[in-house]
Amino acid sequence: MNKIDEFLEIVGECNDEALLYPTDLKDAIIGKMEYFDGANGQIERIVLDKTKCMEILMESDIASGVSEEQAYEDALEHFYYNVIGSYVEGVPAYVTLINDMV
After folding, report:
1. Helix, strand, coil in percent for the chain, rounding step 5
2. Quick check: is 100 in a domain?
3. What is the mean pLDDT of each run of 10 residues along the chain (102 residues)?
């Protein structure tokens, strides 16, 4: 069992609702976040690294010969429309790390 699987098992024991994430982006999981919502109490969500998500989404396009620029554009569109755009209760959070911006 790898670290991500161990982490998901531990988090799932405490709160199954915190486990929602796109399974094809599992390798982008970097942790969990917790916050307090006045109406619902303590909330936990899985956190994924947006840059790693983009890399995962680009992999198959690049492997099939698509240019890196086109693969990035396709991945970005897919990410915003199908990943972030598919809102359901308990969705994960996506983080852009400082090192990926500066």
Report:
1. 55, 20, 25
2. no
3. 85 71 91 87 89 94 93 95 84 88 74
